[in-house]
What we know:
The protein is rod-shaped and about 90 Å long. About 40% of the residues lie in helices and about 25% in strands. A 4-stranded mixed β-sheet has the order 1-2-3-4. Helix 1 (about 1-55) packs antiparallel against helix 2 (about 65-75). It has one domain. It is of the alpha+beta class.
Amino acid sequence: MKNVRSIRGQAVVEFAVIVPILLALVGATTDFARVYSTWIAVHSATRAAAEYLATNPDKNVTSANAGTIAAGAINDEVSGVGAFSSVAALTCAGPEVQVAYSSNPTATGASAKYPLGRAVVSACAPFHLLFNYPFLTQDGSWAISAAATYEVLQNR
């Protein structure tokens, strides 16, 4: 009878040792998947915003409102990190977008009818992880950032 009891106790100890390791692996896998998915979404939205600004299909983009339009385009594609807002310089304190936009009719290959549209869009968002990983995070978050440049002859 004593032997069965010690085997049962051994199983409980093994279970108690293995469960935290398995939970850590599941948590790390979940965090990696969430970070990777958000990273892909932010990069894709940044490229799409740069393309939209440079092509200017609605003829409503100016240097003054390009940041607001880019933030709106990114917000339409990315969810779960908060609302992006246009800023002059990225600090990544929240979801932010920085934009440089120009439409140049005197650029090489451009004309008054087909100006060269150029948009540089940079986006940054803090991403909060499920667990605070020592040496990998600051206060349990990572900064996910993306940048895209797009140039195209407009009105074609």
